[in-house]
Structure formats: C-alpha cells, structure tokens
Amino acid sequence: MNKINICGMEFTIKYFDKESEVDHDGCKPLVGQIVYTKNEIRLLKSTRSKTAINQTLWHEILHGIIEFEHIDDLSEYNIDRMANALNTIADIRGNK
Ligand SMILES: [Zn+2]
C-alpha cells in the first residue's frame, strides 16, 4: 500500500533508507513524519522490522487524525502508546 486516506485526505507513503532523508525539511533525523503541505507520510525503512515500520506509520496516521479532528491534548508519549496498541490489532500494510 502506497497511499492511505486519513479523514478524507489522501496521503502517499514514501520510504527512505536514512533518518536524515525522512525529514522533509532536512533539519533532523527522524523515523517518521507526516507532511500536510505535500500529503506525504515519510518513513524510515532501512533495516527496521516490519513491526517497527508499521508502528511508525500508525503514529503518523494518528498525527493526521489529531490534526484533522482538531484534537489538541495528546502528547507524543500517548500517541506512541496508541500506535503501539493499534499495531497489535491491525497489520496496516499487509505482508509488505
Ligand atoms: Zn509524533
């Protein structure tokens, strides 16, 4: 799956081999980023496990939901916990 619809907005999922390439602005090393201006979710692939990549994808999807639903009181820590829980329920990218 290379595209995902979040709250009616289509995002393209792009994979990168280096943390320095994930940040759209090139400022800091990241494992994942959602870029609203380009409708992109950018993920570090390299040697990470499928589980780790999927958890990061859930994390970025949750950022999208929080943005589009105007939820303003979820910390990064709680987003990570929710991403972890969702990852145990659904394998979002199938067997890729
Ligand atoms: Zn985050």
Task: Identify the notable features of this structure and list them briefly.
single chain; about 100 residues; alpha+beta; four-stranded mixed sheet; 3 helices; about 40% helix
Q: Total domains, how many?
A: 1
**End-to-end CA span:** 8 Å
Chain-averaged pLDDT:
93
Shape, per Cα inertia axes: globular
The molecules bound to the chains, other than polymers, are: zinc ion
Outline the structure in words.
The protein is α+β, with helices and mostly antiparallel strands and 96 residues long. The protein has one domain (3-89). 39% of the residues lie in helices and 22% in strands. It has 3 helices and 4 strands; from the N terminus they run E-E-H-E-E-H-H. It has a 4-stranded mixed beta sheet. A hairpin with a 2-residue loop joins strand 1 and strand 2. It binds zinc ion (ZN). Zinc ion (ZN) binds next to helix 2 and helix 3. The site of zinc ion (ZN) has 4 residues, from helix 2 and helix 3.
Q: How does the SSE layout of this entry go?
A:
Blueprint: E1 3-6, E2 9-16, H1 19-22, E3 32-35, E4 40-44, H2 50-68, H3 76-89
Parallel strand pairs: 2-4
Antiparallel strand pairs: 1-2, 3-4
Helix pairs in contact: 2-3
The site of zinc ion has 4 residues, from helix 2 and helix 3.
What's this, in brief?
The chain has 3 helices and 4 strands. By secondary structure, it is of the alpha+beta class. It binds zinc ion (ZN).
